[in-house]
Every structure is written in structure tokens, then in C-alpha cells.
Amino acid sequence: MKKNNVILLGPPASGKGTQARRLAEKLGIPCLGTGKLLRLEIEKGSEVGLEAKSYIDSGRYVPDETILKMVGEWLDGNSEGWLMDGFPRTLKQAETLQELARPGLVIALDVPREALEGRITKRRECSSCGVTIAVNDLSERVCPECGEEALVSRADDALESFKVRYQNYEELTVPLFDYYRSLGILNVVDGTKSPGDVFSEIQTIVEG
């Protein structure tokens, strides 16, 4: 088991993507974000992308078999340490990952549902560089990272879609807290703090 095999868990809009980018850079390890990988496959019109599109657009989880095949292929090329952003999402995925490559740390971001719904309305993704950010002006289009006028709302950020995704999170992902707690590797972080404060707490856990 490697301590630099890290999983970030949390509900939709909890800030996993932001923290994953910073932590991957800090540790010098590759980051797997299955959501973004799937969206890229959808844009390419690949077989797995077409299969996943109907699930993602309606806020449902993509079938375990599809996700696990993709993750297994990714792990084959990243055996020297990795960070997973929002994966696994189900107990079956977690158990399969234990067989493929055991995580050393699991960090879960805790954010109340009411705060998450507020974040959803402000979240934008850059169609040019892929970064996800929160905007203060809902009409803002210029990406602060790459400077392109390419900020867009994600298809899965509609409020009704969020409600379905959050319900799925409660039913399918929350049980992972007990699973990883039983393995002694779960760490829960208050995700309502500023991104900088959240990252400082994550760094303390990783370095501890």
C-alpha cells in the first residue's frame, strides 16, 4: 500500500476538482478524474462516450463495468502513485480498486447540501483548458486560467440534475465512508472553508 495513492471523495460541487489539481501538483503524481475523462470521450463520440452520455446528462452514474474498465487501463500506466478525483463512487468500485491498487489515504470533503446548491449556480468549466471555477458574475465568460472566452455551465449542473446526483451520492457513495473508516484510512475535511484553508488541512493529512 502506498501513501501517495490518494482518493478524494465528496458530493457534487464540494470542491474535489480544485483540491485534486493542487494536491496532484504538490505530490507530483497524475490525477484521474473519471468525470472529465468521460466528458472527453463524449466530445470525441467514442463508444464509451456515447454509452455514458445518457447517464451523465440525466445525473445518473455511469455503470460500474464501464468505469472500472477505463480506470483499470489508466492504472496500468500509472503504478508509481496516483490521485483519484471522485472515484470510486460505489462500494463495488471501491472493492475492485482494492484488488487493483490499494489507496493509502482517503480524504472526504464534507459540505452541507444547501451550500452545494448555491455553488452549483456559480460553477463554470472552461471548454478551452478544462479548469473548473466559481464565478461571482453569472455572465462571466473569460477564463482566469487561460484567458480564453470559454467559460460554460456544465450540462450536469442544472439544479434538477444536481438533485438526482446528490441522491445518488447519498445512496451509493456515502457508504464508502464506513468502508474506508474500517480500513483506517479515512480523513474527513470541512469543505465549507476557503479553498486555501481546505488545501492546508489536506496537506497536513498527507504529510502527517
Describe this structure in words.
With 208 residues, the chain is an alpha/beta fold. The protein has a single domain (5-112, 159-201), classed as 3-Layer(aba) Sandwich (Rossmann fold), CATH 3.40.50. Helices cover 50% and strands 15% of the residues. The protein is built from 9 helices and 8 strands. The strands form 2 sheets. The protein has a 5-stranded parallel sheet with strand order 2-3-1-4-8, sandwiched between helices. A hairpin with a 5-residue loop joins strand 5 (123-126) and strand 6 (132-134). Helix 1 crosses helix 9 and helix 4 runs parallel beside helix 5. 33% of the residues are buried. The model has no long low-confidence stretch (mean pLDDT 88).
Series of H and E elements: EHEHHHEHEHEEEHHEH
Q: Tally of extended strands? A: 8
Report low-confidence residues grouped into runs of 5 or more: none
Going across the biggest sheet, name each strand in turn.
2-3-1-4-8
* Helical content band: 40-55%
Termini, distance in Å? 16 Å
- Beta percentage is 15-25%
Q: What is the averaged pLDDT score?
A: 88
Number of discrete helical segments: 9
Structural class given helices, strands, pairing?
Answer: alpha/beta
Please describe the biggest sheet, giving its number of strands, its sense, and whether it closes into a barrel.
5 strands, parallel
CATH 4th-level superfamily = P-loop containing nucleotide triphosphate hydrolases
- Rg value: 16 Å
CATH architecture: 3-Layer(aba) Sandwich
CATH class: Alpha Beta
Q: How many structural domains are formed by the residues?
A: 1
Query: Quick one: overall form?
Result: globular
CATH topology: Rossmann fold
State the assembly state of the protein chains. single chain
